[in-house]
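User: I'll paste a sequence; please echo it back and then give the predicted structure.

Assistant: Echoing your sequence first, then the prediction.
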Amino acid sequence: MGHEKLSPRQKMIGMMYLVLTAMLALNVSKEAVEAFKKVDEGLTRTIKNYAIKNDMIYKEFDRAAAENPAKAGKYKSTALQVKERADEAFNYIQGLKIEIINTAEGPENLAVKGNEVIIEEVKSIDNTDVPSEILIGANYNGKAYALKALLAEYRDFLITTLEGKNPTTENALKTSLNTEDGKNKDGEKEPWETLHFQTLPLVAVICILSEFQLTVRNAETEVLNYLYSQIDAASFKFTKLTPMVMPVSNYVMMGGEYEAAVFISATDTTQAPDITVGDTKLQLDDYGRGIYKVRASSVGQKKWGGIIAMKAPDGTVVNYPFDATYIVGESNVIVSPTAMNVMYAGIANPIDVSVPGVSPDKIKVRVVNGSITTEKVKNSKGEPFKGSWAVRPTAVGQNVQVIVSADISGKPLQFAPYEFRVKPIPPPIAIFAQKSTGSVPRATAAAQQGVFAILPDFDFDLQYQVTGFSVLYSERGNDYEESSTTSNLTPKQKELIGRLTRGKNLIIKDIKALGPDGKTKELSPVILKID
């Protein structure tokens, strides 16, 4: 314990060693040692919470890679390598725990179920022989030596993954996964293996191994957070960057004029893109959109395209090629969704219906698998969509058909129906202090009033109302949980949050939210680390 650079984990292990050694020297009853089972139970619960948190981060990598494989693909690949190495270390330690318990308890015991250790069922809690035999060995060739090498390799792999770009996390890894020899209670230098496991009772060894598993998962989380932050580190500061072609109409009457706006869907206001079609550079409007116009002189499908050039934050110029088509033909009907190419069940979806050359009062619209009204629908910014009608689909899994008829020259003409896929409203994300994962300052957490549900990047202005949630807090092996039946924190929940200290996890679970379609959804938990 005299080493001058002990990590919190080493301090805890050293303290456990001193306490247990003193207890054994005093011949304290097994009931006292039973208390250490509670320590292991608390560690096990925390490990499970880290597993939930890490799974959420891996899903974020999947989402980012699906949206932009070129930008996020390599970071997702590295994240999967981190997962593989973390699982390898975690599973090896779990195997050691199972081997120690099975050897001490015998093959027919209740303390091991599959790959799970049930610490409450362990009977040989004060056995000091079996752990030393397995981990140290008669000739100092036990499995603790392999464990030390595995943890060192895991640490070095994670540090290499950081590429020297995150010294804070690198130093934290060196401390938490330190495998250097230390000093024992007498101040004498002692090998890492014997310092942690020599002649310790079985329950203490299991606790120490569980703490190593927790360290493995925590290190995994830290490196995953770094990797995810790198996805946008040297790229455009937009949530999504896609070249867009927005025509005023995809159908042009003979002798009419085709007009389309060409632009980047998320625009950097500090710079304007260069948009070219062939050898012609398009002029930009006040919104940074290039306006392309060409007169329709013949019937048929017309193809055109060009390049949008943007300067990235690192100074490189990135070219985005685009292409589009339009049709020049006789009079026909146009039905275009003004918000998206699908419709969502339970809410109003705006559509714009027009027939070139036909007055709007001469057009009739009916819908199969839904109803249609003339109400105005707002987007996520609270602005009304362009659209003459709004469709409310009835059933998911069955397409909506929009059937248009028009009075042309005094004669009714019905056009072929337009079909749209129907999807359920996507589930919202629960947030606390504007976050669903990551870390939050203690003062910020304490100042919050409740939990909210949002639909990020969703086109419609939809509101979800949180109708209940629970706050979970673990301390010294004990769980403290308080529930709310509204979106607001109760006084007891605020008290629990106020007890959180730096490094602790704030877990908000069992979150329910009522959607605009009248359905209640269960949301994923919010897990935040207190800074």
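Residues 429-530 form one domain. Residues 1-7, 24-28 have pLDDT under 50 and may be disordered.
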